[in-house]
Amino acid sequence: MRLNDKKKQILEAAIKCFADKGYQATSIQEIADSLGIAKGSLYFYFKSKEDLLVSICKYYFERIVVKFWETMEDPHLTPREKLIRQVIDSYEQFVGHSDFVKVLMKERFEVNQEIHELIFSLRAQQLSGNQQCIVELYGEEIRPVSYDVATIFISMINGYMGFVIMEQIKLDFKMVSEFLLDRLDDIVDGMLAKQTKPILNTEEFEKFFASNPKSGRTTKAALAEELHAIRLVVEKLNKKPEELDEINMSLQVLEAELDKKEPQVVMVKGMIALLKSLKIPELKRHLIELEAYIS
């Protein structure tokens, strides 16, 4: 979401007003007054206070998601380092955007469909990314309960986040990250030792995230993001040259078709089916999501 300077100024002023006074209690006039501009000038950029709130969520969520995947896809980091880095990044980002986080934590505004989809998409991506990283760190034996482990890990991060944001308690983020990873080790060891049955079934959970219409990722931008993620996975595959050629050819056809104004659903489904038939575990989630978007 690219913003010009004026729009960015309005968003930052609005979130400051929402944090100080509350979303419901803040008027468009007050936001305009804080900027020293006419109320009509603000309406030139945003049609309503709700539209302004949606734009704020898009602006901040995009930055959170981009940073999250930069860490998760960093080839120079081990899985454990990725999880540690993610904890530190999360705290640093939320402290840097503390006014926005306070509004989300404190307010009980009526969340419209668009904001609900943004929140769902953020949570889905964080859960999915952490689940993959946890399997990479602890091995395939943890996969059956990997979504449960990821959920617990995210909950631990958010639990300490509340003290940092709402109570303004100063914590050493590096120390917290290492502490949480040690506790994650304990949790995983306990689950494996007890052969814990999952609460969140892995296969059903993946289908749920892929097919839920509230995921907020049904646009061409979302499709492009999935294809980009698939490309990154393919680059790291240890396959024979002829197998890689087949995969890349299928991806080229798929990308060309999805780039059309009116893609042929039959062609897209055919290419997805071909890629699924190759039975590459790393591609499974992305292909399920692509299939859900065009269904």
Automatic annotation (TrEMBL):
Residues 27-46 bind DNA. Gene3D superfamilies: Homeodomain-like, Tetracycline Repressor, domain 2. Residues 4-64 form the HTH tetR-type domain. GO terms for molecular function: DNA binding. GO terms for biological process: negative regulation of DNA-templated transcription. PROSITE patterns: HTH_TETR_1, HTH_TETR_2. Keywords: DNA-binding, Transcription, Transcription regulation. This is TetR/AcrR family transcriptional regulator.
